[in-house]
Amino acid sequence: MLEESSFANRKADYFWLLFLSAIMLLMLAPLVNLPFLSSSLAFVPIYVWSRRHSSTPISLFGLFTITAPYLPVALVAFSLVLNGTWKAAAGDLLGCAVGHVGWFMRDVWTREMVGGKTIFSEAPVRLKRLFGEL
């Protein structure tokens, strides 16, 4: 849903979000000793979507209904309950942290700060040309 709503006709920006997130995850992974980062990278779009669609209700397994900002927390808690250790949920937490940085740089920084758009909030022009958006 993130691709269709927030990044419609903006493939370069979506790629740039995932690329910068992958770089951050590669830099942070040794701190928590994670060999695989696929679930962490999958949490980045989930987190960004949940922050951009804060009023959307989500039903978890037909038992609970929560709003979208609590979805990453619920998924981390679910991972913790299933696996039983914080080590198992560390990758998901790392993905939430990187997703928060991505969301902050794209949505909050560009809207609230004086600096406006930066290289972290929008794909470079060369990348947009590569994706055929300019």
Automatic annotation (TrEMBL):
Pfam families linked to this entry: DER1
Membrane topology: Multi-pass membrane protein
Taxonomy, superkingdom: Eukaryota
Keywords assigned: Endoplasmic reticulum, Membrane, Transmembrane, Transmembrane helix
Transmembrane stretches, start-end: 15-48, 60-82
Principal subcellular localization: endoplasmic reticulum
Compartments, as annotated in UniProt: Endoplasmic reticulum membrane
One Gene Ontology CC term in the entry: endoplasmic reticulum membrane
GO BP annotation list: response to stress
Entry-linked InterPro entries: DER1
Family statement drawn from the similarity comment of this UniProt entry: Belongs to the derlin family.
Xref: PANTHER family: DER1-LIKE PROTEIN, DERLIN
Cited function: May be involved in the degradation of misfolded endoplasmic reticulum (ER) luminal proteins.
Protein name: Derlin
